[in-house]
Structure formats: C-alpha cells, structure tokens
Design goal:
Ribose 5-phosphate Isomerase B, Chain: A; 167 residues; single chain; alpha/beta; globular; 6 helices; RpiB_LacA_LacB
Length: 167
C-alpha cells in the first residue's frame, strides 16, 4: 500500500472476457489488504458495454465512491462508464497516470486493459488510485486551481446533461 491511511474501503468492479483475469488479480490484491470488493462479474465476464454501464451506474448513484472496470484495452469500458453523471473514469496504463487521474481530475473509476497491463502494474495502479486524494501532492498545480477547474467540469457536465435531456 502507498501509505497507512486509506480512506476508500469498498469498491465496485467488473470485467469483460479480455479483462477478467486481471480483474480477479486486482480483486484478490485489494481484498487481501482489507478492501471490500463488490464484484459484478464474480463467476463470468460480461460484455464491455454492460460492464461499463453496471459500474458507472453504481458510482453515479453514490452507492460506491470508487470503481474499477476491465476490458481488453480499457477503452470500451471507460467510454461507457463516462456516460454517467458524476463518473470520471480514467483509462490509465501507468502508476503515474493513475495517481494523476486522482490528483488532477478527481477520477472515481479506473479503467484498465487486460491485454495491456501486467498483474504487478495493475495492482500498484489500484493501490495508488485508492490511496491518492484530489489535489494532493502535485507541485506543478495549485490546489485552488484544480478545485475550480473540477467545478467547471461539473458545470459543463450539468449543461450537457440538460441539453441531452431536451433532445
């Protein structure tokens, strides 16, 4: 683990066929460190669009603070999860991008590719994603600016949702 203070203690996750094995590895890693994992695909994978929808809906509703989605590249599940209001899914392929997705963008869903990432890297990415707070530890940006920028993103999201609802 990255530090001794982990604030996220329960997460939701799901995977398609190409992300299923990596999901199981990350799930076992997190549960061994005391994280309660709700696995929406415990016995068999589902289609990437169903996976992105299932996790996106549960994070959007506030049922879970953070989620993980897995497919072959991470792209399909990322696209679908991001369709939900309040979901900021980040497709990451490194520990540093997983960290910065939290610091800069307050991402709440991490998308990973089962044919892209090694198990070691995926476990480290999951750790940093859960251990990193928004606007902390990034000397290149002002935390006040990051907070204001996130507010603008949320305002944009609300405008888009309103426009889409009127169509």
């Amino acid at each position: 683990m990255m530090d001794n203070e982990r604030h996220v203690t329960r997460v939701v996750m799901a995977a398609d066929p190409l992300g299923y094995d990596l999901k199981d590895i990350v799930k076992e890693h997190l549960t061994s460190h005391g994280i309660a994992v709700t696995d929406l695909t415990p016995d068999a994978p589902d289609d990437y669009f169903s996976v992105g929808e299932a996790v996106g809906e549960r994070v959007s509703s506030g049922e879970f603070e953070r989620g993980f989605v897995f497919c072959g590249t991470g792209m399909g599940v990322d696209i679908v999860a991001n369709k939900f209001t309040g979901v900021y899914a980040a497709l990451c392929e490194s520990i540093e991008t997983a960290r910065l997705s939290r610091v800069i963008n307050d991402a709440n869903v991490l998308a990973m590719g089962g044919i892209i990432l090694t198990p070691y890297l995926a476990k480290r990415m999951a750790d940093v994603f859960l251990d990193t707070g928004f606007a902390h530890g990034f000397s290149e940006a002002d935390p006040e600016f990051l907070t204001q920028a996130l507010g603008r993103v949320r305002d944009t999201e609300a405008r888009i949702a309103k426009r889409n609802a009127s169509r």
